Here is the input.
Amino acid sequence: MGFPDALPKSRVPAAAQAPVLRWGILGTGWIAAKFVESVRAHSTQRIEAVGSRSPASAQAFAAKWGIDMPHGSYEALVSDPRIDVIYVASPHTIHHAHVLLAIEAGKHVLVEKPMALDHAQAAEMVAAARRKGVFFAEAVWTYFLPKFDVLQQVLDRRIIGDIRSVYTEYGEFLPRDHRIFDASLAGGPLLDLGTYPVSLIEKLLGAASRIVGLGQPDPSGVNGQLAVAMQNDAGAIGTMATTLYGFTPTNAAIVGTEGSIRFTTEFHLPGSFEVWSRDGSRVLRYEEPRGAHFEGLFFEAAEVARAIAAGRTETGCRTLDASLGTMAMLDGIRDCLGIRFCTGG
Ligand SMILES: NC(=O)c1ccc[n+]([C@@H]2O[C@H](COP(=O)([O-])OP(=O)(O)OC[C@H]3O[C@@H](n4cnc5c(N)ncnc54)[C@H](OP(=O)(O)O)[C@@H]3O)[C@@H](O)[C@H]2O)c1
Here is the structure.
């Protein structure tokens, strides 16, 4: 097809119209609070319970967010019959244990990214969810955003043709006492920040048949930064970098045989992007204000609610195969750079 006159519209339904589920929050950290804030403000989902390792934390979080049922253990949370779905917001070192706990209790699960520490853990979690017949998804919120639905339609209509290359990166400044510098919590940028660029490359190019790269260790014992190039069987190349040492544009460019896509703000957040014709003479722009977690996390909650209410056990926004593919690519990068986790697990 030729270059179009306009971009497709987002097909993401209004979050307020999603069927209402009863949510339990596992963990009381940074992202748990952001999720509750966004979901409460922008959707009609009911956040009914929170579970923590400590009764005091559960009570403090419940009091702050007006949640009726604080649980002083994760076991109590997942066995609460008044809850439909558990949002797992613990560190990724223990996603495997916490997701299996919730699945075995018969709960649907949305787990924060990365799904697990490695592909082997993720495969076990996916198999458990399929065996139990519950919904399971990885909360890579990017792929639930309206802009990614528009982007998906651009790809499906082959507006940029065959993808030849993907360039992407993500760096952030984080204080030294952040868990990202903690080797016992599988710190380093790859699983925390690099998940976004790596999942984008996996989504666009599929499995890597070859990976080369460079990494630099941080004195804390975690990897500090890395840059990697990957190639698929067709010869297409994805390059990604991630760092703990400062903010980067967090951008991405996708080059196809008929055109290219560039993001004009951080690719993983709400914001704008452009589709360029091959010779650059035509540009279509998807316009959206740049947003952060508050403006975006609720989309994943609404999609999970729609999927569960419809009896689906996964979501097309972030399929389980896509999560497994990302975990395999992350494993490949770690193998290439010799990054080992010392989590004791
Ligand atoms: N989607 C996003 O944009 C986004 C952003 C940031 C982080 N994340 C992901 O979300 C997950 C949590 O990140 P976070 O930044 O929210 O972490 P955090 O602030 O450290 O919170 C993690 C919570 O997990 C619980 N926990 C259970 N076992 C723990 C342990 N051994 N050590 C520390 N905490 C433990 C704690 O809650 P209790 O003490 O109440 O049990 C803690 O508050 C990670 O997988 C991360 O990659 C996603």
The chain has two domains: 17-140, 143-337. Residues 27-32, 52-54, 57, 89-92, 94, 112-113, 139, 141, 179, 192, 293 surround NAP (CB under 6 Å). The first helix runs from residue 30 to 42.
